[in-house]
Amino acid sequence: MRKIAPLFLLAGTSALLAACGGGGGVFNRARPDEFAVQRQAPLVVPPDFTLTPPAPGAPRPSEGTASEQALEALFGGPAPRSRVEASVLDRAGRADPSIRSQVGDTGTNTVAKGRITRDIIAAPEGDGQSATTVIPSA
Predict the structure, then answer these.
(1) What is the C-alpha separation between 43 and 41, in angstroms, rounded?
(2) What is the DSSP string of the chain?
């Protein structure tokens, strides 16, 4: 009997561990994403009672999405541009809205910067302790 008790204890422990780690148990259920939850604005009584009711499914006008609220909290909304910044943006002009689809096009003209620029870009990262310079012969 003394030799059977540890066997039963071992078998019971392994059965419990197997039940905990299996797929589809109590611990593997679908949960809501706790980071997607956002606060709702408190209810207030409006000063004007002649308001029209909101459309079903429309977002509440007093608040935006969580990302908009985060941007507002971090950056404080749009800031007026300085004269220098406005001047630079005017000189630069507007980018074509379809520029991203035209970049990889075979008809796009590119400028060859040469071997030296290619070698600089392809150089391995580091602090430059073991860097050497090779001057091509003319």
Answers:
(1) 6
(2) -TTHHHHHHHHHHHHHHHHHHSTTSTTS-----TTS--PPPPP---S-S-PPPPPTTPPPTT---HHHHHHHHHH-S--PPPHHHHHHHHHH-PPPTTHHHHTT-TT-------HHHHHHHHSPPS-STT----PPP-
Give per-10-residue mean pLDDT for the chain (138 aa): 81 78 59 76 74 77 74 76 87 80 74 81 74 71
- The structure tokens listed for 107 are 């008809």
Domain ranges of the chain: 65-92
